[in-house]
Amino acid sequence: MRAHVGEESRGHGSLPPKGRSRGVVGSHTPAGACVERLAYAVRYNSAPSLASAHAIAVETPIEIAYGGQPFAVMMGTPADLEDFAAGFSLTEGIVESFDEIRAIEVELTTESARVNVALSGDRLRAHLARRRALVGRTGCGLCGVEDLAHLPRPPHNDRKPRSPAPAAIGAAVAALDAHQPLNALTRAVHGAAWCDARGEILLAREDVGRHNALDKCIGALLRQGAAADDGFLLVTSRCSYEMVAKAAAFGAAALVSVSAPTSLALQLAQAAGLALIVTARRDGALSFDPHGAPA
Questions:
Q1: Domain segments of the chain: what residues?
Q2: What's the pLDDT tens digit per position in 95-143?
Q3: Catalytic position from the list 140, 195, 217, 239
Q4: In CATH, what number does 166-287 get?
Q5: At 83, is the secondary structure helix, strand, or coil?
Q6: Which of 8, 57, 138, 279 could form a disulfide with 75 if both were Cys (CB 3.0 to 4.6 A apart)?
Q7: What is the pTM of this model?
Q8: What does the alpha-carbon distance between residue 124 and residue 126 come to, in Å, rounded to a whole number?
Q9: Are 46 and 98 in contact (CB under 8 A)?
Q10: Judging by beta carbons within 10 Å of its beta carbon (0-12, 13-18, 19+), is residue 174 exposed, middle or buried?
């Protein structure tokens, strides 16, 4: 199956995602994102084993190519691949803005997916000059980096971190489960969401890879022309260096994570002027903003 998103689909510098309306995401499970398999319950007390059907998250190799030249193979969920390609291109430094992407073409088979991204002439030449091979595990964003000099480092930003209001954080965390239909079925995927200043979730994406879920969310925002300072990002995974780097590359003012941060994530967030709210639960969270807790 082949899907093509090209210049003729552009509207004011954005590509509206196919099958999705602008704004609040529907609580649907993308086609092909899970399969049903029979499993037997293992009882430790020698009770009879019962068979039942279970939804299993699909994990497949996804090749990303630029100008027809393979660049990366990531393991991920074969859904929302146009969003994935757009977000990956920005957060991995392939493009500096969405306008440098001319078209995105997706090819799906039963065993793999291929996404070819057409870049503007100048950007394609710059990319080919620094081309690297990236072979990832499940959405591994640093596998394949040839040396330490190639680690993603968003530019230093002197802005003061702007944390979301506590009520907004709580509202977003409380609503998150309702925006993760694939995880409700499989219990095996990560989620990333975009929230407005009140904590309303406007858009969410899921993937077996935590980096992929965030790239898909950022890519969807790029394709919709959303402003990076109009809200905050919320992720279900641990708050590692790569997640902060991707949020900073998008230009987000704040990143909220339901899990704990790493030391390098804290260091990068401070340098990037990114407010970091972690271990977010329904009743509270931790803020590492040096200016104090959000008000």
A1: 166-287
A2: 999 999 999 999 999 999 999 999 999 999 988 887 654 445 455 545 4
A3: 140
A4: 3.40.140.10
A5: helix
A6: 138
A7: 0.85
A8: 5
A9: no
A10: middle
